[in-house]
């Protein structure tokens, strides 16, 4: 059986990690990084430079004059927004493998992750009045462990998905991963997030996003992520089509008490997805 650390080690050896994204994310978490250091790192990725400048000069920011400097763009965008932009750009290529006629699709997983990220930020801002940048980061990478499993244990992962789809029980997909692969994507993702020195609340959200038998504070990164994942799945943006885990008991009461607010939020979701597509060039359309 495979361990989470074994998968991480093999994945690192493949040199497919988005190194610029990792470095920028780590720098945002420190107080000593200078603007010049950010500029030197970002320059290593021409596509990222283009997207950053396109973002800061978009109608979203409404600046009166054109910004052509990376340093100025970083100032206008803000550190955490920059971190999330870089994370999206760095991770997207990992999800681009085309697998047709399969029960597991990297592109569908990317659409799921992007939808959960957008919903998470909307919940954070509209329901709880918080900025939502950390929960966006947690959501966009919460299932990266599945991508690692797909690359290194693809046949086993597809067996997991078949078992998960065929069963009538309410166990999360992680139960079937542990049985077939020997580990699960939450454990793998948590180890990777720890290696990247991501904020602890982000790392713990990745670790526990399928732990429906535990209770977490409301609001917190993990509780918002669980709410967003449930909603995305109900809208048919799940990891495995046809399966949707139930909402954890501790969040069911919260959702019922705020149902009117959440209905308004969901009505605004298409506009938010369109805005995110413009900002992040996210691939939201289905195949």
Describe the structure.
The longest helix is centred in the middle third of the chain and has 22 residues. 65% of the residues lie in helices and 0% in strands. The C terminus is likely disordered. The protein has 2 domains: 78 residues, no CATH class; 187 residues, Hypothetical protein af1432, CATH 1.10.3210.10. The radius of gyration is 19 Å and the shape is globular. It has 287 residues and is mainly α. The chain has 16 helices and no strands.
CATH hierarchy, class of the largest domain: Mainly Alpha
**Mind describing the biggest β-sheet?**
none
Global outline: globular
CA-based gyration radius: 19 Å
**Count of DSSP-assigned helices:** 16
Stated plainly, the CATH topology of the largest domain is called Hypothetical protein af1432
Q: CATH-wise, what's the superfamily of the largest domain?
A: Hypothetical protein af1432
Distance between the termini: 34 Å
Helix and strand pattern? HHHHHHHHHHHHHHHH
For the secondary structure, the number of strands is 0
Strand content: under 5%
Structural class: mainly alpha
Poorly predicted runs? 282-287
Mean pLDDT: 86
CATH-level-2 architecture of the largest domain:
Orthogonal Bundle
Fraction of residues in helices?
55-70%
Number of domains: 2
């Amino acid at each position: 059986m495979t361990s989470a650390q074994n998968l991480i080690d093999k994945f690192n050896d493949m040199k497919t990690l988005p190194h610029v994204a990792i470095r920028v994310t780590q720098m945002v978490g420190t107080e000593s990084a200078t603007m010049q250091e950010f500029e030197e790192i970002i320059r290593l990725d021409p596509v990222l430079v283009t997207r950053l400048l396109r973002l800061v000069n978009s109608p979203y920011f409404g600046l009166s004059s054109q910004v052509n400097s990376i340093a100025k763009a970083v100032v206008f965008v803000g550190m955490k927004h920059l971190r999330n932009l870089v994370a999206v750009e760095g991770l997207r290529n990992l999800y681009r493998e085309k697998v047709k006629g399969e029960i597991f699709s990297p592109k569908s997983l990317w659409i799921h992750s992007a939808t959960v990220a957008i919903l998470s930020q909307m919940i954070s801002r509209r329901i709880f009045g918080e900025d939502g940048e950390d929960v966006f980061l947690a959501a966009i990478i919460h299932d990266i462990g599945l991508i690692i499993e797909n690359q290194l244990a693809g046949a086993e992962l597809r067996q997991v998905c078949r078992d998960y789809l065929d069963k009538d029980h309410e166990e999360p997909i992680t139960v079937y991963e542990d049985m077939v692969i020997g580990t699960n994507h939450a454990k793998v993702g948590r180890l990777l997030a720890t290696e990247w020195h991501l904020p602890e609340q982000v790392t713990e959200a990745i670790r526990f996003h399928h732990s429906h038998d535990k209770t977490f504070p409301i609001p917190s990164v993990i509780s918002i992520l669980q709410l967003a994942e449930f909603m995305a799945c109900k809208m048919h943006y799940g990891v495995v089509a046809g399966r949707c885990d139930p909402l954890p008991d501790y969040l069911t009461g919260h959702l019922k008490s705020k149902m009117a607010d959440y209905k308004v939020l969901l009505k605004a979701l298409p506009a938010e997805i369109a805005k995110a597509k413009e900002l992040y060039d996210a691939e939201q359309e289905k195949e």
